[in-house]
Design a protein that fits this description.
It is globular, with a radius of gyration of 12 Å. The chain has 77 residues and is mainly α. The longest helix is centred in the first third of the chain and has 14 residues. It has 4 helices and 2 strands. Helix 2 packs across helix 3.
Length: 77
């Protein structure tokens, strides 16, 4: 079964472009869900997150798991 990379990229772009202020589930602080924040939460560079967002690289499952640790959104599931 092939995974739809475009759908992952579109979801990540949507999440970041909405830039909502969300509670960080780990710290309890409110943060802006930006590409920089996603990079920090997932331990990746901003360049890598940008590549994911633009569909240039496959988004690994552990990226979504790490994002869910900090920000829960049903669309990620």
């Amino acid at each position: 079964m092939e995974h739809d990379v475009r759908s992952d990229a579109e979801l990540l772009e949507l999440l970041v472009n909405e830039a909502p202020i969300v509670p960080d589930r780990v710290t309890g602080r409110n943060v802006v869900l930006s590409a920089k924040q996603v990079a920090t939460w997932t331990g990746r560079s901003i360049h890598t997150v940008s590549d994911y967002k633009n569909g240039k690289s496959n988004i690994p499952a552990d990226f979504w798991r790490q994002l869910l640790e900090h920000y829960f959104d049903l669309r990620i599931l």
